[in-house]
Amino acid sequence: MATMIIEGDRTKAASGKTYEVHNPATGDVVDEVPAGGPADVDKAAQAAAKAFATWSKLPSNQRREILHKAAQHMLSKVEEIAVLLTREQGKTLLESRLEARRFGENIGWFADLADKIHGQYVRLPDLTTYGLVVRRPIGVCGAIVPWNFPLTLAANKVAPAIAAGNTVVLKPASTTPLATLACIEALIEGGLPEGVVNVVLGQATGEAIVAHPLIRKIALTGSTPTGKKVMAKASETLKKVTLELGGSDPCIVLDDGDLEGAARAISVGRFFNCGQQCLSTKRLFVQEGAYDGLMEKLVARASKLKPGNGLDKDSRMGPMHTETQRAEVEAQVKDAIDRGAKVVYGGGRPTGSEYDRGWFIEPTILENVPDGARMWTEEV
User: Staple partner for 336: which of 54, 69, 114, 373, CB 3.0–4.6 Å?
Assistant: First the structure.
């Protein structure tokens, strides 16, 4: 059974409760993990505050060297971490390898900035005095990460925080904790001091992180409604907040555009990770003269995206992450069709015994989607 990581220790939930993590391609149980709560967050925050006292005082060049060494060790484990990520999240092994490598590279990239955080000398009107701007780490940071890119988004929050001398309480999404745990374990094995990054699991830990008095900064990637709740709760203790929320991104293609380049970019932007990303290209505005040519190229690319288990080398698109995610996409497709949209490609579930237990859906292209359709106005 996987465990939380608090002050370097592999820790079960204080309540003793657990839950299962499932493979979205097969429905199989990948692992059982602790269902943490406020008591576990308090323990993690205390550990992070303790580690902050020493980590923040290390010379920045020493932090840089420690982080580089830890990142290199983590990068030596990319393949095993990628397999774990595919099993819990569903994305293809190629996508998981890219994401696992990105985690280590981000740690290393921000490590190089650790000794480049400088203050500022300010000249004042009174020539006998001067001002100094001094940059200091804020303390314990809370990082709340979603399931679509658990490693990329964890690194985006953790790497700059610890490079600057802060410590972190990290909460991965409840459905994708395993690869994140493996990454943090690898960093600790590679020399990251215990308590600098602590990992808590379970749905009940998110609100506790936002409310905890020792945690001074919150970084969240999630939905807009969740972002509003986090901002309101964090305001009670005057925490600094950074939010990365949802989107429904447009693309405009004009008559004189590079249609092959546009089709390639749109296909990658929309179908990478089954389109489960806030910056996914979703809505296309195409000038009339480019329409037929672009559509032909998009359909050709979609037809090559074979859905399947992400561990299958022939798979070009994994399943949706959860049954709820697939149901939401199918509801949006139905709503658009009911309003007059036309399915150009896909629109259903792939057939075959290999798809029966997973949350698979075909790559789908619709045209003439009315302005009021949910697909046009809502994020998937």
Answer: 373
The arithmetic mean of pLDDT across residues 207-227, rounded, is 97
pLDDT tens profile 313-324: 999 999 999 999
Joined together, the tokens standing for residue 210 give 């936002």
From the list 105, 207, 244, 378, the catalytic residue is 244
Torsion of CA 208, 210, 216, 222, to 10 degrees: 130
Q: Which one of 88, 185, 278, 362 is the catalytic residue?
A: 278
- End-to-end, the C-alpha distance of the chain in Å comes to 32
Axis-axis angle for helices 60-75, 178-189 (nearest 10) = 120
List 343's β-bridge partners, or say none. Answer: 366
Sheet-wide strand order for 197-199: 9-11, 4-6, 197-199, 167-171, 140-144, 215-221, 240-244
| pLDDT for 236 | 97
What tokens were used for 359? 């949350």
- Assess whether 274 carries a catalytic annotation: no
pLDDT score at 91? 98
Helix residue ranges, H only, the chain: 38-55, 60-75, 78-89, 93-111, 150-163, 178-189, 205-211, 224-235, 259-271, 288-302, 323-338, 374-377
- pLDDT tens digits, residue range 354-376? 999 999 999 999 999 999 999 98
Q: What is the pLDDT of residue 347?
A: 94
Cα–Cα distance, 339 to 371 (Å, whole number) = 10
pLDDT on residue 377: 86
* Domains of the chain, each with CATH number or no CATH: 4-244 (3.40.605.10), 249-377 (3.40.309.10)
Contact 8, 192 (CB under 8 A): no
Give yes or no for residue 330 having a pLDDT over 90: yes
Residues 172-186: b if buried by 16+ CB within 10 A, e if exposed: bbbbbbbbbbbbbbb
**Lowest mean per-residue pLDDT among 29-33, 67-71, 86-90, 132-136:** 132-136
